[in-house]
Amino acid sequence: PGAAAVTAAAPEPAEESPPKPTRQLSWEPVECGAEEMAEAFKAYVARVPPEITRTLNCSWEHVAAAAATGGAGADALQWFWLLDAGQAPVEGGRAENAVGLAVFRVARGAVSNHGQILHLSMAVPDWREEMLPALRALRQEMMRCLSVPELRVTLWYFEHEDKYRIDLDVEAAFKQAGFRWFQLTNTSDGKRGQIKQAKRNRELGDPEAPEAVPDLRLCSCLFQLTNTS
User: Fold this and answer.
1) For the whole model, what pTM was predicted?
2) With contact defined as beta carbons under 8 Å apart, do 166 and 191 qualify?
3) Would you say residue 34 has pLDDT above 70?
4) What is the pLDDT of residues 8-31, one digit of tens each?
5) 3-class secondary structure for the chain?
6) pLDDT at 7
7) Angle ∠(203,173,115) on CA atoms, nearest 5
């Protein structure tokens, strides 16, 4: 007799895993004094993954130095906690459960101004999935409230597995959020950074720039005449 035919049973379709729910996040202004914020910042940044702290220079010294250079060339710093939508407002500088933090300002140039992101971080284990939507929301918030044509941020190089580079996941999030290479920057202590820029683009959903408020400053001088004869 011939060999019995063997019919393979059709594989059962694999069950599709339910889609991961999208986390609803919102940027909320920080309301506290400088000393309170310094303590809250240091406690918060201890939860930030090293890939972010190294690429975005998430140190208090970096932010404090930027605040000290304010004046005619830059506006005051603006601080925002990233919170889960519906989360109770943060009291003072306390943010033990904050998802992220952003610090930015308007940097004023001779020809044009731009929004400068001085600090951006995420303090959650799944930051790789959360950074892009958080960054897009931050871009919308800055474009909505700042009368600037573009935003800029510096991503810093660091030693990683015998290579000197930017964290690829952080860089990818900025690229997907519309930030492109602008120029390199080097510091006196040997650090190198890559400045990324995002221009206001209505096709990407950016709102129209708010009306610019003129900045008028008057200075007076007092001259004293002396008789040298």
Assistant:
1) 0.80
2) no
3) yes
4) 445 555 555 554 555 688 888 888
5) CCCCCCCCCCCCCCCCCCCCCCCCEEEEECCCCHHHHHHHHHHHHCCCCHHHHHHCCCCHHHHHHHHHCCECCECCCEEEEEEECCCCCCCCCCCCCCCEEEEEEEEECCCCEEEEEEEEEECCCCHHHHHHHHHHHHHHHHHHHCCCCEEEEEEECEEECCEEECCHHHHHHHHHCCCEEEEEEECCCCCEEEEEEEECCHHHCCCCCCCCCCCCCCCCCCCCCCCCC
6) 43
7) 65
* Tokens representing residue 128 in the block: 């790789």
C-alpha span between 227 and 13 (Å, rounded): 101
CB 97 within 8 A of CB 87: yes
Cross-sheet strand order for the sheet of 150-156 = 25-29, 78-84, 100-108, 113-122, 150-156, 192-199, 180-186
Q: Determine contact, residues 123/145, Cβ cutoff 8 Å.
A: no
Query: Is-contact 80 31, C-beta < 8 A?
Result: no
